[in-house]
Amino acid sequence: MSYEEVIPESSADALPLINSDDEEIEEIIKCCKNTSSDAATSKVKEKLDSLENVILNVAITGNTGAGKSSYVNAVRGVPDDDKGSAPTGVTETTMEPLMYPHPTMANVRIWDLPGIGSPKFKAKQYLKDVKFKTFDFFIIITSERFKENDIMLAKEIMRKKKLFYFVRSKIDNDIRAEMKKKNFSQEEVLSKIREDCTKNLKKVGAPKVFLVSSCDLGNFDFQLLIDTLEEELPMHKRMALLLSLPVCSVAMIDKKTKALQRLIWLIAFSSSTIAMVPVPGLSFACNLGIMIAFFQRCFESFGLDDRSLKILSERLDKSTEDLKNPMKSRFKEGVDRKVVIKFFTTAEMGATVTIAYILSTIPVVGTLATGGVSFGTLYYLLNKGLKEMAEDAKSVLLGAGLEASEQEKEDQDEDTKEQEPEKEP
């Protein structure tokens, strides 16, 4: 959301314009209008705490050799040979549920569950053994067709009213094998695989099957899987998932940006009460700390930190310096106190003071007195920094050749159209 969206022609309608499509924030706004500022602030802090500290437990299961462990590593942004990776192999390497925390978000936990390929498999007992209630949702993976055990497990999960998703893995292997054949068409291959998978899953209705390559999450159906999860998970769980995922596409960067913008509103509102405390320098010191912590979270979520860039450089055989070259923002070398203090220069603060004053006149925010100014200042600066980082993340992605530019996409579309046979009148 751009800052201009909160500057109304009539200040009376101001707050509903702030993320007005967000039911939880609308609830807070109503609370602000109907109760004291202390109660409103308490409500905001409660929401902020639930978003920042929510525990997300994701279960990954499937047959032996289906690529469960590789998927666990991929969604955590960890190479298979990394020290903290889930062990991979053609034999079953997982004998009991193993939890792998996210490298930078300890509240996000990916669980590698034992394989379900045994002929004596009993879905009910399996879910009891792995402590079913622990998990928010299940990913059921296969590298071939979904079999009877997959179906039995899905039925039991469905009966217990939890979310589950079917993932057909190792799609890159299928594509490579088919490329050797004459008249190869990637779309036809993917269509056949999807049709073959869904045909075997009729006993559980008409579930979606997502085709994924753990070696290249930016390709095939991974983004579609995330879109589906975003629709079906509760808001607080959804945000934890989005911020934890590795950057694999411009669409993913946009989703992360939107999630972080939501945090900005809550952080700025929460910090506005600090400005009301009559202690010289307290508001500046606290806001500076808040900004550093927020920007560090953004930096890591966008994959701009040294660890993430090192993993990407090894994968692409490029130096980290080459990957960082397209970055243009003040955060190119990282997030520290000196970088964030530059936000408070005269040039930056000129625009901020004007906007903060306008916000201080808005009903509800204005009731926080000087807090209205603090809200406006922090809201503007956090959005500005977030936008800079998002642009850096997109530049790194494009520079690494992991995403086509808009012009390249247009050229590809034109080439496709030219290759299509003309329809007879």
What is the spatial order of strands in the main beta sheet?
Answer: 2-3-1-4-5-6
Query: Which stretches are low in confidence, meaning pLDDT under 50 for 5 or more residues running?
Result: 1-21, 274-282, 357-373, 405-413, 415-425
Average predicted confidence as pLDDT: 78
Terminal CA distance: 47 Å
Largest sheet features: 6 strands, mixed
Tally of strands: 6
**What is the number of helical segments per DSSP (H or I, 4+ residues)?**
17
Name the beta content range. Answer: 5-15%
SS class: alpha/beta
Considering DSSP H and I runs of 4 or more, what fraction of the residues is helical?
40-55%
H/E order of the elements? HHEHEEHEHEHHEHHHHHHHHHH
Notes on the structure:
The two termini are 47 Å apart. Helix 10 packs antiparallel against helix 16 and helix 11 runs parallel beside helix 16. The protein has 425 residues and is of the alpha/beta class. The chain has a 6-stranded mixed sheet, sandwiched between helices. The radius of gyration is 24 Å and the shape is globular. The N terminus and C terminus are likely disordered.
Structural features:
425 residues, alpha/beta, six-stranded mixed β-sheet, globular, disordered N terminus, disordered C terminus
Task: Characterize this entry briefly.
This protein is an alpha/beta fold and 425 residues long.
Helices and strands in order, then pairings?
Layout: H1 23-34, H2 37-53, E1 56-62, H3 68-75, E2 98-101, E3 108-112, H4 123-129, E4 137-142, H5 148-159, E5 163-168, H6 171-179, H7 186-199, E6 209-211, H8 222-232, H9 235-244, H10 250-271, H11 282-301, H12 306-316, H13 320-324, H14 337-341, H15 346-360, H16 371-399, H17 406-419
Helix pairs in contact: 1-2, 2-10, 4-5, 8-9, 10-11, 10-16, 11-16, 15-16
